[in-house]
Write a structure and sequence with these properties.
alpha/beta, seven-stranded parallel beta sheet, six-stranded parallel beta sheet, globular
Length: about 400
């Protein structure tokens, strides 16, 4: 009898984050289907720590607080775990864990399991100073050379990843980001959008209060472009809360702004909302946009990802403004309050971004990457249809056939 896949998943903590939430949801699905995920946890802290409960996990004792140097601590923790335990694959669940995965490849050498890395953010990074971009591009090329597979979350990311990492397009797998956990899609679709809502427009934004999200732009655009009676709620916590509170006071919108802090379940907020708004400088495939579409909400956002145009149905599901363009974003906020969304079509698009659909595709990708790199045999390996070990190009072709999705399918 062939054994389950042993999947090592580094997770810094239970601090709120979309990358970690998706990774833990996938781990739960793999465990339920007979595989052996292992959460290598940095510290048992944060509002989402309950999501780790019930999952196989290991955490090294923290002799001193590690939050300020969590990446170095995770490198040490994962290295120690791999030194003492076998794993068939390392799942690098987002860009923030890439340095950990690269360190494992360098420190463990040939003993390092294959790495499958999900690209969770836009790679163009137009927010980055020009002098830093060559170094960043070199860093991406290092990942391209060391990781067995790089995974994009939507079809438009395929060419971007291949170009940025210096790899062949066929070596990039596309697996739609499993933003929606089991039952979540059904709960969001149950929200009634046929009955017209009463009262002033309510805009909801979701994200950590950090510079990437550019919430100051949102507040300024809201003050000048949103309907005068509109309300804005920002769900999230982070280091720029004080800055946002002072800015809201200067703009005269404090009475119309709610900074709700971290919210475990955003469904009630989406139910009351008129639209989702997003002002980020860069994103990958934002999970909250998928949730909004499932909830039947239009979206006003900056064009912060190569995938946003397609995600919003080329304008059918919302309005995009150039990144950092306050006037254009203010105009989008003014128009989104009366936007007519084709709700059924939006919900059909969201339906493909579920854990249940993504988990087996990742599982097949893990099996193929591991078989190619090490020749191990696991349950299900023979059914993936991949080429034999050592044939990188052939395997990559099969990965594309099995996990890639055409642009027309993505838009459907």
């Amino acid at each position: 009898m062939k054994r389950p896949l042993r999947i090592a998943i580094p997770i810094h903590s239970g601090e709120p984050g979309g990358v970690e939430r998706v990774a833990l949801g996938l781990a739960r699905e793999w465990l339920a289907n007979g595989d052996a995920p292992m959460i290598v946890l940095g510290r048992r802290e944060g509002a989402m720590i309950d999501m780790v409960d019930g999952l196989p996990q290991v955490m090294r004792p923290n002799p001193i607080p590690t939050a300020q140097w969590e990446t170095l601590w995770m490198i040490w923790s994962l290295w120690r775990y791999l030194k003492d335990n076998e794993a068939d694959v390392i799942f690098c669940s987002g860009n923030t864990y890439a340095v950990v995965a690269v360190a494992m490849k360098l420190l463990r050498g040939k003993k390092c399991p294959p790495v499958v890395a999900k690209v969770s953010n836009d790679l163009a990074r137009i927010d980055m100073p020009a002098f830093g971009r060559p170094f960043y591009r070199f860093w991406l090329h290092v990942q391209g050379r060391l990781f067995q597979r790089n995974v994009g979350m939507a079809e438009p990311m395929r060419a971007e990843i291949a170009d940025a990492m210096g790899i062949e397009v066929r070596e990039v797998a596309i697996i739609r980001d499993p933003s929606l956990a089991a039952g979540q899609y059904e709960r969001l679709c149950a929200i009634d959008r046929k009955t017209p809502r009463s009262g002033p427009p309510v805009f909801v934004a979701v994200g950590r209060l950090a510079s990437q999200k550019n919430f100051p732009l949102l507040l300024r655009a809201f003050a000048t472009g949103a309907p005068a009676d509109a309300q804005l709620a920002i769900l999230g916590e982070g280091p720029v809360r004080g800055q946002l509170e002072k800015l809201a006071e200067r703009l005269g919108i404090s009475s119309r702004l709610t900074l709700a802090g971290h919210v475990t379940d955003i469904t009630p907020w989406l139910e009351k909302a008129t639209a989702l708004v997003m002002s980020s400088d860069y994103e990958g495939v934002p999970a909250v946009v998928i949730e909004a579409l499932a909830a039947g909400l239009p979206v006003a956002a900056t064009d912060c990802s190569v995938s946003m145009q397609n995600l919003l149905g080329e304008g059918r599901f919302g309005i995009l403004a150039p990144v950092g363009d306050e006037a254009a974003f203010a105009d989008a906020l003014g128009r989104i309050a009366t936007f007519r969304l084709p709700v059924d079509e939006a919900r059909a698009t969201a339906a493909s971004f579920t854990v249940a659909k993504a988990a087996p595709r990742y599982r097949a990708l893990f099996a193929a990457a591991g078989f190619e790199a090490t020749g191990f045999e696991t349950a299900g390996t023979e059914s993936t249809g991949f080429e034999t070990a050592g044939d990188r190009s052939g395997t990559a072709d099969m990965v594309g056939k099995m996990t890639g999705e055409s642009l027309s399918q993505f838009e459907a």
